[in-house]
Amino acid sequence: MQFRTYKPWRWLSVLGISVGLTIGSLAVQTAVGQTLGFERERGRQMLSVIKEDIKKNYYDPKFHGVDLDARFKAAEEKIKQANSVGQVQAIIAQVLVDFNDSHLYFIPPEKASRTDYGWQMQMFGDKPYIVAVEPGSDAAASGLKPGDEIYSLDGYEPTRENLWKMQYFYRLLRPKPAVRFVIQKADGQQRQIDVKSKVTEGRRIRGQMEDDIPQLIRESEDDGRLHLHKFYEAGDDLLVWKMPEFDLSEAEVDSIMDRARKHKTLVLDLRGNGGGLESTLVRLIGNVFDHEVKVGDDHRRKEMKPLIAKTRGGDKVFKGRLVVLVDSNSASSSEIFARVIQLEKRGTILGDRTAGAVMGAMHYSHESGTDIVAFYGVSVTFADLIMSDGKSLEKTGIVPDETVLPTSADLAAQRDPVLSRAAAIGGVKLDREKAGALFPIEWKK
């Protein structure tokens, strides 16, 4: 199964590998059902298949100057020395991570257990914070709270450059039964907190391989937000659309924008939105411009292909005030939309610098084995989108027109200064407390 997406494989930050933290260094030894020799051979076969997917389909035929054969040969030699399934998979993951490409990644075989952490973390500016703790979890019992600033996680300091790697490892590659935090509380005191995870055995966390990585991660955690499109209205002055991902049909986009046209201001909340369908992106752009807009050019292996958003036309276009909210988790289609609005001077962008993960990719699914089959996959970048200003957003993201960040105290009290400020731009008074209560974090049952 192959499909195109502008959704990144991780939803937290820009790729970066020069921080001393590697996927391989996080791997731990585990008992395996099959012999180690069998698993090494399976890993070698996976590596070979993935190499061919990249060789045939990667958008840059020169692979950014990388000697593809040498890189994969080195990984194959490492697999021969691996002493666990986890290490084999970590070696495969690392060889793709080293490309420093947000949409090139390994999807490991599905797990037969589910690990629920009971906490969420996020970057605000250059600082990592706990943003949510599940009631009744060990995290809550251990004293972890929203607003806690994270100094280290299992000895590693989370940064914008490496947080994606931690998420990939903890949520998908090698879930952990326990983690150790060093955090700073609101009173300025540092504490070490050990948090146990809830591990449910015998439950598959993933089904079809055409799922994207953010979706796989969400399915692997019971402490994720439920990704539903949500709304808040203040008379005919304001409509807030909390858009979790670009997953709507053109008709669904049109229906929501028909609703938006009845309001003077639309606040489109793309915080935490990891991207999604190009068709949703283009249709949304066409609903806020009364003319055709060139989004950019897809730089592909053999051509440059323009990406054009056609206007929905006439009185069907939303012509009111537009405010777009973004944060460090806004990636791919979210960044493209916000940057188009910024370049065309169509609205105001509020919040935090975005992820800088903007590429086009296809997913390729495979299976290994006969009696015991392992399903795995790889996402391969086939295009880099060059925006209308001639620049790529990959690794840079966008800087909002107005930077608005919650403080540790805001996170602890569940206040939302970003949404409050957006409403004020639309002439609507919405205090930070009420704004923070509009779209609370929900937990999987």
Structural overview:
With 445 residues, the chain is of the alpha+beta class. Helices cover 29% and strands 25% of the residues. It is built from 13 helices and 19 strands. The chain has helices at residues 23-26, 36-57, 68-81, 85-97, 138-141, 163-173, 213-219, 250-260, 278-286, 333-343, 408-413, 417-425, 432-438, and strands at 4-5, 105-107, 113-116, 119-124, 127-133, 149-153, 178-184, 190-196, 198-201, 230-234, 238-242, 265-269, 293-300, 304-309, 321-326, 348-351, 359-368, 374-387, 402-403. Strands 1, 2, 13, 14, 17 and 18 form a 6-stranded antiparallel sheet that branches. Helix 2 (36-57) packs parallel to helix 4 (85-97). The longest helix has 22 residues, at 36-57. 48% of the residues are buried. Mean pLDDT is 86; it is low at 8-33 and 203-225.
Helix content: 25-40%
Percent in strands? 15-25%
Described by the principal axes of the CA atoms, the overall outline is: globular
Q: Strand tally, please?
A: 19
Radius of gyration: 22 Å
Low-confidence stretches: 8-33, 203-225
Nearest-integer average pLDDT? 86
Number of DSSP helical runs: 13
Q: Major sheet: size, sense and barrel closure?
A: 6 strands, antiparallel
Briefly, what is this?
The protein has 445 residues and is of the alpha+beta class. Helix content is 29%, strand content 25%.
